[in-house]
Amino acid sequence: MPARPRLAVWKFASCDGCQLSLLDCEEELLSLAEAVEIGYFLEASRKTLPGPYDLSLVEGSITTPEDAERIREVRRLSKKLVTIGACATAGGIQALRNFARIEEFVSAVYASPEYIRTLDRSTPIAAHVPVDFELQGCPVNRLQLLEVISAFLTGRTPAIPRYSVCLECKRAGTPCVLVARGTPCLGPVTHAGCGAICPGYGRGCYGCYGPMETPNPPSLGRRWQALGASERDLHRVFRTFNAGAEPFRRESEAHGG
Amino acid sequence: MPEGHVPTAGEAIIDREGLQALLDALGARGFSVIGPRIRDEAIVYAPLRNVADLPEGWTDRQDGGRYRLERRGDRALFGYAVGPHSWKQFLFPPRQRLWQARRTEAGFDLLEEPPPSERWAFLGIRACELHALAIQDRVFLGGSHPDRSYAERRRDLFLVALQCGEPSGTCFCVSMETGPKASSGFDLALTELLGDGSHRFLVEVGSRAGEEILAAIPHRSAGEADRREAEAVLDSTASRMGRTLDTRGIRELLQDHPEHPRWEEVATRCLACANCTMVCPTCFCSTVEDHTALTGESAERTRLWDSCFSLDFSYLHGGSVRKEIRSRYRQWITHKLSTWFDQFGSSGCVGCGRCITWCPVGIDITEEVRAIRSSLLEPTHA
Questions:
Q1: Are residues A66 and A36 in the same domain?
Q2: Is A1 part of a structural domain of the chain?
Q3: Is the ipTM value over 0.90, yes or no?
Q4: In the list A115, A138, B197, B361, which could disulfide-bond A208, CB 3.0-4.6 Å?
Q5: Inter-chain residue contact B360 with A174, CB threshold 8 Å
Q6: What positions does the domain 4Fe-4S ferredoxin-type occupy (chain B) (predicted)?
Q7: What percent of chain A has pLDDT over 90?
């Protein structure tokens, strides 16, 4: 048997939900373990193998000076580096700090703020090192994660469409909640990948998968206003897990500081 | 299944029980009946067995980016216009595996997909939708490479048309000359009659298969009064179109103005979300995705509905041709209303209004054409 490609899974500032998606694969986990040699995946095993790694999956954003250094080391050890999730691709929910004064957060949260050494911004991995592929989502879809891994193992382009959630709704036959119910929905500006779960249950999309390829938030924002959304609603809805993603950041700032 | 209009003894009348008998007769002949049903606050196309499954007493109110169900004051079973679904989802499935491959010692084995096991009867397909079906027939079955999967699904179709009694606020079939009257391409056609306090349906026969089914269900011959009432239904529908589209010279109007400032303007509103292309009953674009198993032991190819509004759609070596939203909107509307004539010999638009209603921001194909046309009448653009 030829040597299997060595896989590493790295964690930066994050909730672990995306690497948990990999453990969630259950059925496919055995074939994954057959297809790759798991070299570094602390959430699954204490056993680690040294680099270099053929494929590194990186979860989390950069929020500390140490992590800004560590990601360079991870990049150095990785032939291919794929970032997974809203934190790694857009800075995550912790990028809310980018809009505030970090000292105020630190003193409000920690009893002894003097022990905290943190950066004043949360930034995506691609702001620090070259990235071979970004998989969006909060958390990432486990099937899409397997698709990305399979694609890198066979040397093909991952089939991860970057268009809107609307295509997933329509293919599923779900009537548009925005049109048929007047429910505010972020689907038209949001990256596909979740399978349009929320509209399938009669709710609007929350934008967990971040901006689609060419989003037009100002136009959707005007539509939301016509449906009764306030400036504050618009400000807040674009300021969640993907607040740091440029098109969402701009739209939230257009509706209040 | 319609093989051209056959001479018949004339129209028949069935009542509500007769409509149930029609559903039963289709079921007995092995058809799965698909028709309008209420689901998720809209009228969609889904399997049904009983008259009670139909949206009795409901109608829809439609405008740009807006659709609402409302109660009617009567017991009409077909008292609404077209909804978010179109029949194309059955003949051209949104997601369809084309084949699978398994690695063998010698190479690989190809596993083809089996043909569909179901035969469908479409209940309530309207004139605009029959035209859309005819357009997709040309797209998928015309030329030297007919689509086998479409052909298999299309071959055994039984079509119960509905002479449209309720246009929506976004309908414009009269402008496109695709309705409201269905005159061919069906096995049976129903006109719902609610006058005289008796709820009944005038039945027209369009094929031998239709004739055979009608013979199997209780009916009586239509009288002059029935026929007059049925004509009045269509006249009323034709007079209540929510939209109009001036199609004079439309092929040149769009082809000749690729740099019109209106494209820039519409791009400020267009979300490039692709909803218009998904709901359009004639849009036929697809993409294929290949997936490989982790172990490399198997692979499969899937065909999915695609849209000219995605960047990947126009991706050639090195990048997308239509990077800007204005190029993509211009491509869609120009193909639909203009270059479709060059490609398929007809318009690609049947005036069903779905793209207007289901656009989240209510972009109106008729308004966009009007804006370009009227700007040319102004002296500055002469």
A1: yes
A2: no
A3: yes
A4: A138
A5: no
A6: 259-291, 340-368
A7: 91
